[in-house]
Amino acid sequence: MMESRPIPGPALLQHHDRLLGVLMADGFSAALATHAFSAIDAYVYGFALTETSLPFEPGDGAEEAFAVKVAAPAELYPHIARSQNELFGDGGYAFADEFDYGLELLLECLERRVADDIPALRERSQ
User: Fold this and answer.
1) Is 20:41 a contact under the CB 8 Å cutoff?
2) Phi and psi dihedrals of 5, rounded to 5?
3) How far from 88 is each of 84, 85, 91, CA to CA, in Å?
């Protein structure tokens, strides 16, 4: 549905406008609000696309079985092997948790950026 409309309609424009307004009200400059919106939108959309193409259902424990099934030889792919060992070593890995982890990283960075941006905005308004 998202890909079927080359020109955004009024509802989508209103959604974007409100989201930008919320970010700007929280101290984001217009430019940083736009960057934040784009980054969050791309992250959410990209994650959703990735999730739909996985060869297993996230959250049903199949992640480890899939990793074992397509195990890359450690001598050829040492970094993949190390990642798999660390992720699956304690049995606590779930792909479904990746969304929250990644979003938290993104939001922490945006929080730092807006904190850096506020003094510059104050200087410009004086």
Assistant:
1) no
2) -115, 105
3) 6, 5, 5
